[in-house]
Specification:
InterPro entries: PepSY. Residues 27-56, 177-205 are annotated as: Disordered. Residues 61-118, 144-192 form the PepSY domain. Pfam families: PepSY (PF03413). By secondary structure, this protein is an alpha+beta fold. The chain contains 5 helices and 11 strands. The protein has helices spanning 9-16, 49-57, 62-72, 128-136, 141-152; strands spanning 24-26, 34-36, 44-46, 75-85, 88-97, 102-108, 114-120, 154-164, 167-175, 180-186, 193-195. The strands form 2 sheets. Strands 3, 4, 5, 6, 7, 8, 9, 10 and 11 form a 9-stranded antiparallel sheet that branches. Helix 3 (62-72) packs antiparallel against helix 5 (141-152).
Length: 205
């Protein structure tokens, strides 16, 4: 008895017609039952368990990390990222300081203690658009994170994209308890929150 069933004809026809093919999981138990894999809705992607564990292990929220970074370097936060580093679980924060320089601050994700801090000496021309967008923003990184977390789980990343379809937006990533990742866009002027399409970076064709 065959244990694997390959369905090719329908998929090939759909591709020739320019349609979208939905992956189908076929059971090898011989029961004959098939079920389509659940496709994530717009703005939602399945997240791996490592990122879910990191979100659960963090004791410092994104807004708290932003506050701690600004205590170390007064200015404006342009990005936050929850990550594994040599000291353990950390928040990496990018800050445009009041001194006009870009600073990178690494914080312990359990205590908010500053672990590392240095000035980014890259060519400032690379940050010109980001600098302008950040200075003009009415919604800061902490506020964007709070808006996203209110309905969409734990924030794992906040970034000011100064060239998202010719405008600046806060891109916020969250993960819910079931391991689903959400990508959200927040207008830095109005604070309006929208759900980004899945794989949005490739959707400008």
């Amino acid at each position: 008895m065959k244990r694997h069933l390959v369905i090719a004809t329908a998929a090939a026809a759909a591709l020739l017609a320019g349609g979208t093919v939905t992956a189908v999981a076929v059971s090898g138990s011989g029961s004959g039952s098939t079920a389509p894999a659940a496709a994530p809705a717009a703005g939602h992607e399945r997240q791996d368990t490592e990122d879910l564990r990191e979100a659960g292990a963090a004791r410092v929220t994104a807004p708290q990390a932003a506050a701690a970074a600004l205590k170390a370097v007064p200015g404006k936060v342009s990005g936050l990222d929850l990550d594994r580093d040599r000291p353990g679980l950390v928040w990496d924060a990018d800050v445009l300081g009041k001194d006009g320089k870009w600073h990178e601050v690494t914080l312990d994700a359990r205590t908010a203690r500053v672990l590392k801090q240095h000035v980014d000496h890259e060519d400032d021309d690379d940050h010109a658009g980001e600098r302008s967008a950040l200075n003009n923003a009415r919604t800061d990184a902490a506020t964007a994170a709070r808006k996203a977390a209110a309905e969409h789980g734990t924030v794992t990343s906040v970034e000011l994209d100064d060239d998202h379809r010719a405008k600046a937006v806060w891109e916020v990533e969250t993960v819910t308890k079931d391991g689903t990742e959400h990508k959200l866009l927040i207008d830095p002027q109005t604070g309006t929150l929208n759900t980004a399409p899945t794989h949005d970076d490739h959707g400008d064709d």
